[in-house]
Write a structure and sequence with these properties.
two-stranded antiparallel ribbon, 73% helix
């Protein structure tokens, strides 16, 4: 029961310190200026991740003792490295190579020293235990990909916060219910920090999380998802009612939206002969914005999709990855195709109904001439 207060403590701490963080960031002129592929129209304070992480740590300090901190020391070192990396990128904009080196270091600490890794495919495609070297490589690749995928989805007010909140709340409850309270506390503390941040990040946002938040939360979410997969895969079939017999698919559901959106964008860019890392406005949230949805509506739509797929995985938890993984992937592909088609149709209709620029200019010029004649005819 004590662990539940972790979320409350983190939320209250975040709620209290976030205004001060906004004030300091404004005074230092550390603002996210609009332009390029950015959607916001005014300069907004960034680095809200400082408040999220600070609130999370305070919540954990309330619930964990010294021995428990020692047990998670490697995970927290990795989170700390990502946090510092995010601050550095927000302040001086690190090069991709610098960011990659920092991420690899954090991942090596967690995977090798902390031994949080994917050790098996748990029967998927007939594959069981993985060689140690392959386990390290596969887990590292997954953590890098998932961390950066979450970083890329952070493009609208409230979006990254909503998606991560859903994942951390689910993981927090699941870890507590299955006898892993230490990791449940971490997830619930992160949930409280994110919830307080969303109070100030909901549209119109007063602060963005920046790379300080997106890299840190993305890394933590990816790491706990890997641990979630491993715990499910090593549970005995009848050990817990909450066991997912498709651990890989269940872990994928934790990061579904950001993961598939990134893959979708990369495939589209490559198919059109563009560099896969070229910046553009082809992410799913950009498409939904073109349908005249507000930031908060897009966050709710994508959050609802994530909840729906979590519900699908929970409802079919007795099925194996051999059955459930193709089902989920197929459903996501169909959903992406439908979304693209509906968006294109809606955008064309909006463009057709909108007045042309030439018409607007002609109308403006006509109004200007009418006003001029009216002023000339009026007695002085």
């Amino acid at each position: 029961m004590l662990q539940i207060f972790t979320t409350i403590i983190a939320f209250l701490v975040g709620l209290l310190i976030m205004p001060s963080i906004i004030k300091v960031i404004k005074s230092k002129d550390l603002l996210d200026v609009p332009g390029g592929r950015k959607i916001h129209k005014e300069a907004v304070p960034s680095m809200g991740g400082i408040g999220i992480v600070s609130a999370m740590i305070m919540g954990m300090l309330f619930s964990l003792n010294f021995e428990e901190w020692v047990e998670i020391r490697f995970l927290m070192v990795g989170v700390g490295v990502m946090f510092v990396l995010g601050i550095g990128d927000d302040l001086v904009e690190l090069t991709p190579i610098q960011k990659l080196i920092g991420q690899i270091f954090a991942i090596m600490v967690v995977v090798i020293l902390g031994d949080i890794r994917i050790s098996s495919f748990y029967g998927f495609l007939g594959i069981e235990e993985l060689p140690l070297w392959l386990s390290y490589v596969l887990t590292s690749f997954a953590l890098i990909g998932l961390t950066n995928a979450f970083n890329l989805i952070d493009g609208l007010d409230g979006l990254a916060g909503t998606l991560s909140l859903i994942t951390f709340m689910f993981l927090g409850g699941w870890f507590l219910a299955t006898g892993f309270p230490l990791y449940g506390v971490i997830a619930l503390a992160a949930s409280g920090g994110i919830l307080s941040f969303l109070v100030y990040n909901w549209h119109p946002a007063k602060i963005f999380m920046g790379d300080t938040g997106s890299l840190t939360l993305g890394f933590l979410m990816a790491t706990l998802s890997v641990l979630f997969v491993e715990v499910n895969g090593t549970m005995l079939p009848d050990s817990y009612e909450l066991k997912f017999h498709a651990p890989i698919t269940a872990g994928l559901a934790m990061v579904l939206v950001s993961c598939f959106d990134t893959l979708r964008v990369l495939v589209k860019r490559v198919s059109r002969g563009r560099h896969p890392m070229a910046a553009d406005k082809s992410h799913v949230h950009h498409f939904l914005m073109r349908m005249n949805l507000r930031h908060d509506q897009v966050a709710c739509v994508l959050g609802g999709i994530k909840v729906a797929f979590l519900g699908l995985v929970i409802g079919f938890s007795a099925f194996s990855d051999n059955v459930l993984l193709p089902t989920v992937i197929g459903s996501v592909v169909v959903l992406c195709l439908v979304l693209d088609a509906v968006t294109l149709k809606k955008v064309k209709r909006i463009a057709k109904e909108s007045p042309r620029i030439l018409v607007l200019n002609t109308t403006a010029q006509g109004n200007e001439k009418s006003d001029k004649k009216r002023l000339e005819s009026e007695p002085v």
